[in-house]
Amino acid sequence: MSVRSLTSAVMFAALACTALPAVSAAQERPSYGPRLEGFEYPFKTEVLNLDSQGQKLEMVFMDIAAEKPNGRTAVLLHGKNFCGATWEGTISQLSNAGYRVIAPDQVGFCKSSKPDSYQFSFHQLAENTKALLESRGIDKATVIGHSMGGMLATRFALMYPETTEKMVLVNPIGLEDWKAKGVPYQTIEAAFEGEKKTSFDSIKTYQQKFYYSGDWKPDYDKWVEMGAGMYEGEGGDQVAWNQALTSDMVFTQPVVHEFAQVKVPTLLMIGMTDKTAPGANRAPEEIAATLGDYTQLGKDAAKAIPGAKLVEFEDLGHSPQIQAPERFHEALLKGLNDA
């Protein structure tokens, strides 16, 4: 399917499933290409060529070697409103601790291909990720997923338990089944229209409200600009269309019902002020009020996943690795070292 060219579209309203009103930026913001051309990643990027669903696609990734290897590999899976680059601080911490780190941009996101027509599924993205690891000669890895990446990490661990040494879920979405709780379905076309109404300011407004509980630091602007800038100019429509497709994937493919089947050691890291709940704006008010309660969702997930360990950050939100990196990474490394 092809879509007409538009001058401005961004992906973030699709995850929120909220068409927040566009607000003119107070200052000029950077503009990047639809594959983040012009945005510099913290480490060298490489490309895996994929033959997937009858198409030639490119999966961009970073492969960072440790100076003093401990023989272990960590795979970092980004969220829907994030990229491999957002893991910058975590990559450095893990690399310094001896881990080889693989940080891909999934197909449909960031620097990777954005196909006109693609059946997005967590199974497909897990298969793509497995192909990446095989191409790099990696047969076992710790899989760390944030936000939507937590749903993907869970699917990967379910599909490839022999490849998954440990699983870490950082404020994963999908700890509840929104459609089963009464959130109405949104068509892909409607999601696409919502994408087109988003701006730097609306992204920031959403993240302030749901991610950081109003605790905004200037450093966060870089990551908002990364996403917003990708949708400026020619090609922005294709980014928006891919994000509409992946919104559908997130909503219709819950993993929460399969937590009991996870067979790998699991660490849950939960910022408890997080309120992320895709589609809450479409739900009746009494239902919306019950969604995104990470103070309870983390506990429920820890009970459902056999042997899972739970680390809670009472004062942190959706991205604890960005909001309080020292505390987060100390807890992460401790959790990885625990038997």
Automatic annotation (TrEMBL):
Pfam families: Abhydrolase_1. Residues 75-325 form the AB hydrolase-1 domain. GO terms for molecular function: monoacylglycerol lipase activity. GO terms for cellular component: membrane. It comes from the Bacteria. PANTHER family: HYDROLASE, PUTATIVE (AFU_ORTHOLOGUE AFUA_2G14860)-RELATED, MONOACYLGLYCEROL LIPASE. Residues 1-25 form the signal peptide. This is Alpha/beta fold hydrolase. Keywords: Hydrolase, Signal. GO terms for biological process: acylglycerol catabolic process. InterPro entries: AB_hydrolase_1, AB_hydrolase_fold, AB_hydrolase_sf, Epox_hydrolase-like.
